[in-house]
Amino acid sequence: MESSQPERPINLMRGWPAASVLPTDLLTKASATVLSDSSVSTPALEYGPDAGYLPLRKSMSKWLSRHFNVEEDINRICITGGASQSIANILISYADSLVTKGFWVVAPCYHLVCPIFEDAGFAGRLRGVREDEHGIDPVELEAEIQRLERSERNAPDQPPSKDVPGRKLYRHIIYVVSTSSNPSGKTLPLERRTALVNLARKYDALLISDDVYDFLQWPLSRSSPLDWTPEMRLPRLADIDRELGVEGFGNAVSNGSFSKIAAPGMRTGWIEASPAFSKGMSMQGSTKSGGAPSQFSAAVLSVMVQDGSLEKHVNEVIRPQLRDRHLSLITAIQQYIPQARISASSYAGADVFGGFFVWFTVNIGLSTQLVAQAALKEGNLVIGSGGIFAVSGDKSGPRFDDKIRLCFAWEPVDSLIEGVKRLANLLDRMERNKELYQKTYTQSMGQDWVTANK
Ligand SMILES: Cc1ncc(COP(=O)(O)O)c(C=O)c1O
């Protein structure tokens, strides 16, 4: 074991955008634009309309329609307080502890989504559905749903525990990150997307897709231009649902966010779904009382979306930096941890990647939970151990004790490389001294640590 710790802390767990990609100048200018004209500042500073700041709904509808090649329709878009708060609100309006029977979550999952479900009253009811090389498998999911439906066959229908006028309570909720998933980085191919939507339609399920990384993808080669190739612009689940024809609420909602393409502190996002679904989102009690979430932030962002400066920032600042960091990180992993099993691409069969994270397997015969503790203690290094990304409360669900998640969005390239070297040395020491490490580190890091490091 190593008794002295390197001085410089390195955090490869934190899933935040680096300061170098925050559009501070654009936000300064856009805020001044909003505040210098009372015809803009007054509505921006008052309570917002229930569906959210109209110019942002319009400009997002334009951008999304151009990017995903879908028809513009602002009635499908509602402004939210970011993806996390939006999930909580979706669950308030569209899920119920008595009516909703199945809560299916891609496994591994974005670890902080579980507490949102738990707070909504669904603790202990989440079931993980394992990803294979292409992401979540609709065939496996259907088998699980059928199993649950069989066990429910003779159970009497129960009245809902709440009344949600203008909305509906689905029988199943399915949570996925269709593109560049957190933590696995995987992107679902088109056939699986279509199969998932058909499945949702068949079983009265709502697909919630956190589409927070769709705008953050790049080709794997450093020399390729950052043009958007077809594999990087796959239709969202909500687009497929729409294409198949929606009457009423539909079965898929795209949960978007400005956190990774602008700044998490703006606390603004959007959902796109059927007009009925979107309207339902704006009918929540908290919105009726407080107006749409994030009204001022939405007004500022709308300036940057309308004049194209945010899209330019994404394409000219964020994507190049993420590609550079990602390639540096995987090169370092391949060089210093040759035993790591890592998938270079997000999308099996294409040379693209996206999101903030790499996810890989190390087989040293010890849980990566111990590796994470030892990394902190001996290496002044924070990493994400796989176990954190198991679906919470699903005791017989998939476990990931041989996995590690590293974020390449937060630390600069030199720290990414230095962090991998520290990890490689540690893995080597641990493999040679298994018993000692097993005895020394047994506790988990605890929930506060996990939340603080996102
Ligand atoms: C899949 C996923 N969903 C949601 C979030 C949080 O989004 P927001 O900041 O919009 O609440 C994150 C952030 O890491 C994420 O990775």
From TrEMBL:
Keywords: Coiled coil. Residues 413-440 form a coiled coil. InterPro entries: Aminotransferase_I/II_large, PyrdxlP-dep_Trfase, PyrdxlP-dep_Trfase_major, PyrdxlP-dep_Trfase_small. It comes from the Eukaryota. Residues 41-409 form the Aminotransferase class I/classII large domain. One of its GO terms (molecular function) is 2-aminoadipate transaminase activity. This is Aminotransferase class I/classII large domain-containing protein. It comes from Emericellopsis cladophorae.
